[in-house]
Design brief:
heterodimer; A: 323 residues; mainly alpha; B: 576 residues; alpha+beta; eleven-stranded mixed beta sheet; four-stranded antiparallel beta sheet
C-alpha cells in the first residue's frame, strides 16, 4: 500500500507538469490582449508605448520562455505579481482560499449530510409519495442554474424581506470581533452557502438513493432481518455502511470544488473567493494569477483522486492494490 | 477475514487511524479551517462613522498610482493633481495649485518660434500628504522622475516627453519647461503628471530595481496621496475603506467615511440598490435595463435618483477596407435608411439622444455645428435613390446588385456582451433589409474583438462607441492614427478617414489657440465629418449613476474621457 501511494505521488509530478504546460498554452492561445484592460481608456497611447509595455511585462517573449519563467518562479514558491490585482499572487490567493474554504466547506458539510439523509429516505421509502416528491424536486432543482437561483434568493431574502445582505462578506460599520460582526458575517454566508448546498444535495441525493437501493437488495440484509433485527438497525448499521462506500469516493472526487470555489456563485454574491479570483484573472488576461489558481485546483484534484482510491481500498475489503 | 486482518493487508497498523478516528479528525480539520478563516473576518478595521456611504463599482481597484490598470474614479477620491476638471462644465479647476497659469499674468510663456513654453504653478500653502508630511514642489518633480523612467511601466508618456525640465525654486513653486506646444499645459491634471511622496519612495526608487519599485504595496494597499480621502484599508481590490482627510487642500470632506465595493454583476448591484444597501453606484454598475427598472420601482417611490448623462458616443462604422463602402453615397444611403429617432424613443425609452456629429452637447459650439452639419433624416426612398445613383439596383432576390454583379451584402458585427448594441444592430439590419441590403450578423465577445486579428478592423459593419471629447479627436480621427500592421492595429482612427484638410483642422485644434477659434474649428470639423461620414453617427449613449436619497453633490459627467470623473469633487459630497 505504501509503495502504491509513493508510486502514485511520483506519478503526479509529470502529470502536473503536463497539466501546467497545457493550461499555460491554452491561456496563451486565448484571444485577447494581456495589455488591453490596462490600457483601455488611456488617451494619447502611441504604438511605441504599447511595445515598451509589452517588453517591460515580458509579453514579447516566446511562449516557452514565458512558461519557463512562470514555472521557475512557482518552484521557488513565488509565482509572481498579479497585474489585475496589483499584488503578489500568493497575497491574493491566501485570503481568497480561506474565504472559499469557509463557504464551500459549510456548503459541502450541510449539503452532503442532507443529501445522505434524503437519499436514505428515498431508498427506504421507494415509490412512496415522499420519494416521488423528492425525485421531482431534485430534477427541477437540477435544471435551475446557480446564478438564477442566487438572484432569486437575493430578491426574496434581501430585497423583499430585507433579512440578509445581497453581497460581499463584511459590514465595515461593525466593530471587529463583536457579536454583531459575527452574526453579520454568518448572514453574509447564508445565501451563497444555500445555493452551493442545494447543488450538493442534488448531486449526492440521487447517488445515495441508488447506492442504498442496491445494498438493500443484498442477501445479507435479508439474513439480518431474518435474525429479527429491527429495520432501523438493518438500515442504519448494516446497509448504510456499505451504501456509503461509493458515496465516500464520490465525495472525495468532488472535494476539489471546496478549494476551487464556484465562479458563478462567488460572482453573483460578490464573494471574494477563489472562483471569483479565477474569473477576474482570466477576464483580465492576468495569466500569472489564473495559472497559479488553476494549478492549486489541479494539485487538489490529483490529491483527492489519490485519496479517493486509497479510501476506497480501505473502506471496501474487496479492493486490493498490487505492489 | 477479520478487521485486524484487513488492516494488515493494507499495511495499516492498529496504531493508525480507524474509521471513527478518521471522521473525528476530518471534522476537527473542518472546524479548524473554519476557525482559521474566521480569524480573517474581524480584520475589518472599522469604527462607526458619523457620515458613511457605501459605493459600488464594477471594476476592482488595482492601482492608485500611475501604472497597472487604474480608474480615474478611484484615483480622484484618494489623490489630487495640480488641477482637475469639472465634468459638467468642462472648466479646469485648480486643486493643489493656487491658480491656473495664464498668459496675461506671465505664468504661461510661449515661444512659438522655438516651439517651447514655460508654465509656472504655485502650490497652495501648507499642503500635506495623508501621512501628515508636507507636500512640496520637490514631490512633484519626483513624480515626474518616476513616470519618465524608461523601466517604469507608465502607459502614456505623451505629456511627459513634452516636458524637458522641471525647476524647483522653493517648496511651493513648480516651473515646467516644455519642448513642444501643448494646449493643456495650463491645466496639468493627475493623469498627466502627479506628485508622489518623496519621503516614502525615494530610497526604493534610488535602488534602481524598477520592477520591484512598480510592485510596491505603496501603489494600492499602503497608498499615501493628497486627495480628499485617505486609504485606511484595501482588501485585494474588492473592497476599499476610505476616511476623510482633515488637511485636504480644498477643505475637509463632509462625508467621514466611504466604503468602496467591487460588485461585477449588474443584477446584484440592482438588487443592492433595491435593498437599500448602497448609497452610490458608479458608472457601468447598473445596466441600461436596470436603470429603467430602478426608475419605475425605486425612483418613483422617492428612494433616490437615477442620473443619466449622454456621455459617450455610439457609432456605426463601415469598413475602411471594404470597397462596397468607398462611395460616400452608399454610406449616406445606409444612414438615411435608419430611423434613429424611432429607435431612441421605442427601444431606448427616450434615454438616448440621436447624434449627428461627434461633438458633445455641452460644448458651446454644439448648436452652431449641428446647424451647419449635413443631417441624414430617416428617408428610405432617398436611401434607395442614393444607392441607385451609386450604381446599385435590386437583384432577383431583392438584394441590391451593382454592375460588376456584386451584392450589397456584408458581415455586421458588434460586441456580444453589449445588449444595447445588439438591440440596435438587429433593428438596423432590418431597416437595411428594407432597402435591399443584406447583412450577416457575427458578434464577438469583447476579448475576441480586442485580439490582434480583430482589433480596429472588420470586414463589413461594426457598432462601437467611444469618448466624444474634442481633446481626443486627434487620436480618433487623424490620418496619422489609422490602425495598420506596422502599428499592430493599436491606433484609434478605426474609420480610416484620410483627408489633409481635416488633419489641418485637428492639428490647429491641438495647438494653442483662443477659445473662439477652437469653437470655429470644431464647427468646420463637424461639417466635414457630416459630409464625409467616416462613421455613421447613431446616439449619445447614457452613463448611469444611481444615488440614494440623502446623498448630495454627485455630478454625472457630461463627456466620457480620461480627464472627466464623477468623483472629482468628493470633498463636496454630503449625506443628510
Amino acid at each position: 500500500m505504501l509503495f502504491y501511494v509513493v508510486k502514485r505521488l511520483f506519478q503526479t509530478v509529470p502529470l502536473l507538469l503536463v497539466i501546467s504546460a497545457l493550461i499555460f498554452t491554452l491561456l496563451y492561445l486565448m484571444p485577447g490582449d494581456p495589455l488591453y484592460r490596462m490600457l483601455e481608456g488611456i488617451p494619447n497611447l502611441r504604438p511605441e508605448d504599447y511595445e515598451r509595455l509589452r517588453r517591460l511585462y515580458g509579453f514579447d517573449d516566446p511562449i516557452y520562455v514565458q512558461y519557463g519563467k512562470w514555472l521557475w518562479q512557482l518552484l521557488q514558491l513565488n509565482p509572481g505579481y498579479s497585474r489585475e490585482y496589483g499584488q503578489p499572487v500568493f497575497d491574493i490567493i491566501w485570503p481568497a482560499l480561506k474565504n472559499t474554504l469557509v463557504l464551500t466547506l459549510a456548503a459541502v458539510v450541510i449539503g452532503k449530510l442532507v443529501a445522505i439523509v434524503l437519499g436514505i429516505f428515498s431508498a427506504v421509502r421507494q415509490y412512496s409519495i415522499g420519494d416521488y416528491i423528492l425525485t421531482a424536486v431534485t430534477f427541477v432543482a437540477y435544471s435551475v442554474p446557480a446564478f438564477w437561483l442566487g438572484l432569486m434568493l437575493i430578491i426574496a431574502f434581501s430585497v423583499k424581506l430585507g433579512w440578509l445582505p445581497t453581497s460581499g462578506i463584511v459590514n465595515s460599520d461593525l466593530t471587529p470581533g463583536s457579536w454583531e460582526a459575527i452574526v453579520d458575517w454568518i448572514k453574509h454566508l447564508i445565501l451563497p452557502v444555500a445555493v452551493l448546498a442545494i447543488s450538493e444535495i442534488i448531486q449526492v441525493q440521487r447517488f445515495m438513493r441508488s447506492s442504498m437501493l442496491e445494498v438493500l437488495r443484498q442477501d445479507y440484509l435479508t439474513t439480518a432481518r431474518a435474525k429479527g433485527l429491527s429495520e432501523r438497525v438493518v438500515v442504519g448499521r448494516h446497509a448504510l455502511k456499505n451504501a456509503l462506500i461509493p458515496v465516500v469516493t464520490i465525495i472525495a472526487v468532488t472535494m476539489p470544488r471546496v478549494v476551487g470555489g464556484s465562479t458563478v456563485v462567488e460572482t453573483v454574491f460578490a464573494y471574494p473567493g477563489m472562483g471569483r479570483l479565477l474569473f477576474t484573472s482570466i477576464m483580465g488576461n492576468d495569466f500569472v494569477t489564473a495559472m497559479t489558481v488553476v494549478m492549486i485546483i489541479a494539485i487538489t484534484v490529483v490529491f483527492f483522486n489519490l485519496l479517493a482510491d486509497i479510501l476506497y481500498g480501505w473502506l471496501d475489503p474487496r479492493i486490493r492494490y498490487q505492489s | 477475514m477479520s478487521k485486524h486482518e484487513n488492516k494488515a493487508k493494507f499495511g495499516l497498523r492498529n496504531s493508525t487511524l480507524n474509521r471513527r478516528q478518521f471522521i473525528k479528525l476530518a471534522g476537527a480539520s473542518a472546524v479548524s479551517v473554519g476557525a482559521m478563516s474566521w480569524s480573517r473576518a474581524p480584520i475589518f478595521a472599522a469604527q462607526p462613522a458619523r457620515k458613511r456611504i457605501v459605493i459600488h463599482g464594477e471594476r476592482q481597484v488595482t492601482s492608485l498610482g500611475y501604472h497597472n490598470r487604474r480608474e480615474t474614479e478611484h484615483v480622484s477620491m484618494v489623490d489630487a493633481g495640480l488641477v482637475t476638471q469639472n465634468p459638467v462644465t468642462l472648466e479646469r479647476v485648480p486643486v493643489l495649485a493656487e491658480e491656473l497659469p495664464s498668459i496675461k499674468k506671465g505664468t504661461w510663456k510661449i515661444d512659438t518660434q522655438k516651439k517651447t513654453m514655460i508654465t509656472v504653478y504655485k502650490l497652495r500653502p501648507n499642503l500635506k500628504w495623508h501621512d501628515g508630511k508636507p507636500y512640496t514642489s520637490k514631490d512633484f518633480e519626483f513624480g515626474w522622475q518616476i513616470a519618465k523612467h524608461p523601466e517604469f511601466p507608465m502607459p502614456d508618456r505623451f505629456v511627459l516627453e513634452m516636458i524637458s525640465k522641471i525647476e524647483i525654486h522653493d517648496d511651493r513653486s513648480i516651473v515646467i519647461h516644455w519642448n513642444d506646444l501643448y494646449n493643456e499645459a495650463y491645466a496639468i491634471q493627475y493623469t498627466h503628471v502627479r506628485a508622489f511622496p518623496r519621503h516614502l519612495l525615494l530610497d526604493a526608487f534610488s535602488a534602481g530595481d524598477m520592477k520591484a519599485f512598480a510592485n510596491l504595496p505603496f501603489w494600492n494597499k499602503n497608498f499615501v496621496g493628497a486627495g480628499a480621502f485617505r486609504v485606511v484599508e484595501w482588501d485585494g481590490g474588492s473592497r476599499m475603506e476610505l476616511e476623510a482627510f482633515n488637511d485636504f487642500a480644498l477643505g475637509r470632506p463632509k462625508i467621514d467615511r466611504m466604503t468602496f465595493k467591487t460588485v461585477e454583476d449588474t443584477n446584484t448591484n440592482l438588487a443592492a440598490v433595491l435593498a437599500g444597501e448602497v448609497d452610490f453606484c458608479m458608472r457601468s454598475t447598473i445596466s441600461f435595463d436596470g436603470a429603467v427598472i430602478l426608475r419605475e420601482q425605486w425612483e418613483k417611490q422617492g428612494k433616490g435618483k437615477v442620473l443619466t448623462s449622454p456621455a459617450s458616443w455610439t457609432w456605426l462604422n463601415l469598413s475602411r477596407d471594404n470597397a462596397l463602402f468607398s462611395d460616400v453615397r452608399v454610406r449616406r444611403a445606409l444612414l438615411h435608411a435608419i430611423d434613429r429617432d424611432a429607435m431612441a424613443q421605442n427601444i431606448f425609452k427616450g434615454e438616448r439622444i440621436v447624434s449627428h456629429i461627434p461633438l458633445s452637447r455641452v460644448r458651446k459650439s454644439y448648436k452652431t455645428a449641428l446647424a451647419t452639419a449635413s443631417i441624414y433624416k430617416y428617408d428610405a426612398e432617398r436611401a434607395k435613390k442614393l444607392l441607385g445613383e451609386a450604381g446599385w439596383k435590386p437583384g432577383s432576390d431583392g438584394v441590391m446588385v451593382n454592375g460588376k454583379g456584386e451584392r450589397l451584402e456584408f458581415e455586421f458585427r458588434c460586441t456580444a456582451e453589449r445588449r444595447d448594441h445588439e438591440q440596435a444592430q438587429a433593428i438596423i439590419a432590418d431597416y437595411w433589409k428594407r432597402i435591399g441590403v443584406r447583412t450577416n450578423i457575427k458578434n464577438m465577445p469583447n476579448r475576441l474583438l480586442n485580439s490582434a486579428e480583430n482589433r480596429s478592423r472588420w470586414p463589413g459593419a461594426f457598432i462601437g462607441s467611444h469618448n466624444v471629447t474634442v481633446e481626443e479627436w486627434q487620436e480618433r480621427f487623424h490620418t496619422k492614427n489609422i490602425p495598420a500592421a506596422e502599428n499592430k492595429y493599436s491606433l484609434e482612427n478605426v474609420s480610416g478617414w484620410n483627408d489633409p484638410k481635416k488633419d489641418a483642422i485637428l492639428d490647429e485644434l491641438n495647438s494653442i489657440i483662443t477659445p473662439a477659434r477652437s469653437e470655429q474649428l470644431q464647427v468646420e470639423y463637424c461639417k466635414m465629418f457630416s459630409e464625409a461620414l467616416p462613421h455613421l453617427p447613431l446616439f449619445f449613449s447614457p452613463e448611469v449613476l444611481v444615488v440614494k436619497k440623502g446623498l448630495t453633490g454627485i455630478t454625472p459627467r457630461q463627456e466620457s474621457g480620461g480627464q472627466n470623473s464623477s468623483s472629482w469633487n468628493t470633498h463636496q459630497w454630503d449625506k443628510t
